[in-house]
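re the bet — no i am not wrong, look at it urself. input seq straight from the record:
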Amino acid sequence: MSQRGPESGALKRELKVTDAAAFSVGLIGPVGVMALLGAGAAGILGGGATWAFVFALVAVALVAYGFVKLSRHISHTGSVYATVGLTLGARAGFIAGWCLFFAYVTIGAGSGIEIGLFVNQLFSDLGLAFQPDWIWITIVALVLVVILGRREVHVITRVLLYAELIGALFVTILNVVILVRVGTGHAPGQQTMSWKFLALPEGTDVGVIAAAAVFGFLAFAGFEGAATLGEETSNPKRDIPRALKIAIAVVGAFYLLSIVAQSIGYGLDPAGVKAFGASSAPYGDLARAFVGPWLADVLTLAACISLFAIFVGTLSGATRVLFALSRDTGLSKPLARVSRQGSPTNALWVVAVLALVVIVVLRLTGAAVLDATFWSLTLGTIALLVAYVLATVGAIRFLFFRERTDTPKWQIVVPVVALALVLYTIYRNAVGLEAPYSWFPYMVAGWIVIGLVLSLRRGLTESVARNLKASNAEPGADGDPSADAALGRRPAAAGVGDSDGAGNA
């Protein structure tokens, strides 16, 4: 395929299913995630931290049902922006993309801040006196992200894949060693194998699990990242659904193995549970205890690399969402251009600046690096869940309330249950919390209000509807004409992308 010039606004189709899956896995960053989030869940659920990830895995799998189904019909770099825009209407699609953009920027910033935490830990473990402020480490990482983000997209996906594979290998080795030593009675702290890792603290109800599940949802944040490559994948309506399934299955298995090993490794007695919940470096603690200091250093380095992969993946995803929004709305033509390498470089610069703003603001609050990390990640997760809600509602409307769709009607229970779980998780993380966490839902709501005001710009929704319909004018998944029909390309029914659709009501 020939390269397009910077004025064309066209991305290059060059990726395969492995590239798309690698992008989702890299955006999730499972190695970096389990370097910290397991301890966060343990702080709420104690020895039963595994349930936070089980809850989230089930919910994400249910949410993914709608993404997988819709990605067989819709391929677009805007991800949920396009799927919601073509199913609920242009304004709803714009808001979904607006929330996804915000989520990627803030989750990316949080991951960048976390790099500062683990780099300084690595320096300390190596006996180095050099301990720079975390903001400088994060800024250096951001510069590297921008340099890499300007490259061809297949280079980015390869970096994400290799970064996670190397780290996952060492983490899996640690997990297996923990389980074997505990199971054979050779654990360093006389930990014993039992099923208590599934035991919840007394008085724990579904609401507490849902509150802890924000760590689980955050752990899977970015699974939909492959969908942002809808215009850069050779056969997107076949390969994107496969990539989403692969990413969730592989990452889900890795998480469950890791959280069980971490829980058992610390010990399921009160002292072990307390130590796990208070740890800022589970990999280092367990590696030193079960293997040796060398593995602790290797895993800390692996966590840094994985977090950098998340940083790259989230900001690359945000770049593509911003590119799509700018191109389809006409709000900023310069942001809708691509470089000779096929990268939306102008949009990347805007994303990088916004991420820097988030990082600087958090530093000016005087927050400790761990607090700054969780604040940014939690804020982004709430915005991401809002996007998931809109995408799930759109999937329900498209799959079960449109003519000539071949989805069995009984399957409506899947997205309905997914919607209930996500809404309940948002509720549990918006009510009854202490500051600053109680502020985050209002901050997300404020961002949505800004998006709604922008969407009132004259001609914006009409432009979005027109461009979304045009971008999906090719035949449906695997040549299935029913996909075209469901998207409104028949005279007998209104199109889901019409400018007067539900999103514009």
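see?? Residues 404 and 482 are 6 Å apart (CA to CA). told u. also The radius of gyration is 22 Å. so pay up
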